[in-house]
Amino acid sequence: MKFFVVAALVLAASVAGAWVTTPGSREQTVHVNIHHSSFNPGSFEFSAGSTVTFVIHNGDPIDHEFILGDGAVQRRHENGTEREHGLVPGEVTVPAGETRKTTYTFAEAGRLVVGCHLPGHFVYGMRAEVEVS
Question: Rounded to an integer, what distance in angstroms lies between the CA atom of residue 23 and that of residue 44?
Fold first, then answer.
């Protein structure tokens, strides 16, 4: 019975775009949906020292990126020419209609941003705020 309750909670969290964590753990899984060139959820809160695996589903008919970092990271990608992402924690290309994962450890408190830097996407407002306390 306990298995079914846990399975139901995991399913409910993934459908709602929420996070899932094991009690006492500093590791979380967060489901993010991309729809109409926006991230859902549109903001995140994490504790410093936590490790988060983002599972990003792109429901749009066009490709997107999930780039997590501070202002310097966002500026580098906005002005950069990288066509694919996936080797750097917190950075991944998410093709149209597909799902990708990236894992990121939040080392210290502060504010970060998740952005998409394909031409015009960040300026359009494709970003989400991240608060780390």
Answer: 19
